[in-house]
Amino acid sequence: MAENPPTSRIARTRRFGGLVAGQGIRWAGTRAANALRSDEAADAATGDRAAATARELVKQLGQMRGAAMKIGQVLSTVEFTAIPESEREEFKATLASLRDDVPPLPFKAIEKLMQEELEMPVAQAFADFEPEAFAAASIGQVHRATTKDGRLVAVKVQYPGIAEAVETDLRNMQMLFPLIRRLAPGLDVNALAGELRERIADELDYEVEAQHHRAMERGWRGHPLVFIPPVDTALSRRRILVTEFMAGRRFDVVKTLPDADRDRFGEIVFRFFFGTLNHLRRAAGDPHPGNYLFLEDGRVGFLDFGLMRVVDADYLAGERALAQAITRGDAAEVKAGLARLGYLPNPEEFEPDLLLGQLRMAASWYLEPGFRRLTSADVAAIIEEGSSPRSPYFAQMRRQTIPPQALLIRRMESLVFATLGDVRAGADWHALGSEFWGDAAPSTPLGEQDAAFWAR
């Protein structure tokens, strides 16, 4: 179990300030020493400093939870182009532990909050409530319980004091900008901050998350491949979200299954996230494997819709047109599309052919036709090729930015890709993707079931 996170403005500001000041001094020392080192020794020293920075970020942001932890989670998907290639994946993996390895708080730390929200003791609201949480994340943790009428439910409870601390964290986030700019010079930190501020405000209000969840459950209700557990509206509150309990095989088990099972799982995961974007205009910002279960009937169940954006129809149409232009190899239209969508702050600085090559490389896993069994090595290779200073696209990538509406879309794509590689799923990903950005006919039997559902 973890200790209670600090909740006072002063304590949380002190954590941010101490983290930034300490790392700033250490980076300055590394740069000064590197002036006297060989290039190889300087790269090694910078890598060591980056790894130490990641460990300290995880320690401090992880202990704080709330918006501070969410900042670290989002940073785990950013390409840190200033870090030596040999250390970059370790750095991101360390930050990703903020998403995957969160210890829960003891029940006594959340019991009072639950009683306040429910306006009655927990034992009076539920027939049975397991005090040991079975999952934990940045904003809250999840317990198994049984309702008075005998239904098994999952109860997501917000950490005490987190909502009150978030505004402080979002203000303090600006302290991290110099450090983030040092590690990822091409990242538009102001756009990142704006999107985080808007999304986290929604995520903190479980009534807003419940609205997202109900909209997703309605949209996918009755789907032959996807299941989303219904919300128990009567028991849910602003800081408590209760849903039907869902039992299934977790991701570590799915990875051990035969090829056919892993391929089915991977195709459904792909169809769910791209289908949600295409049919419901929703970008799910937290698509990591801890939020899906492989059910015994062959469906995949999905959870956690707190970090979500409804994408404007015109913007989504622009993203679809961009994907079609990349597929056609139309470099001029690719540049024009990127400029219209807001990826190119100064379009005149960019060469169309280089932009096309960059995007074809980055999205090669689902833009190249033919069956492909993805692996974690594929994911690492594409990330490495796209972020290496030796890449022919490196200089132009440092001058690009990610528009706010695209932030969760790109995060969704990268985490889905990482999941498919981790589970070693195989498919013709180009054929699957063409169904969503090009309105192609279903390419698989699962696609025929999916298309029949959306044609209702």
UniProtKB/TrEMBL annotation:
GO MF terms held by the record: ATP binding; kinase activity
SUPFAM superfamilies on file: Protein kinase-like (PK-like) (SSF56112)
Claim: Nucleotide-binding is one of the keywords in the record: yes
UniProt keyword terms in alphabetical order: ATP-binding, Kinase, Nucleotide-binding, Transferase
Domain ABC1 atypical kinase-like: 98-335
InterPro entries according to UniProt: ABC1_dom, ADCK3_dom, Atypical_kinase_ADCK, Kinase-like_dom_sf
Keyword Nucleotide-binding in record: yes
GO BP terms in the entry: ubiquinone biosynthetic process
Family statement drawn from the similarity comment of this UniProt entry: Belongs to the protein kinase superfamily. ADCK protein kinase family.
Protein name in the entry: AarF/ABC1/UbiB kinase family protein
Native source species: Solirubrobacter phytolaccae
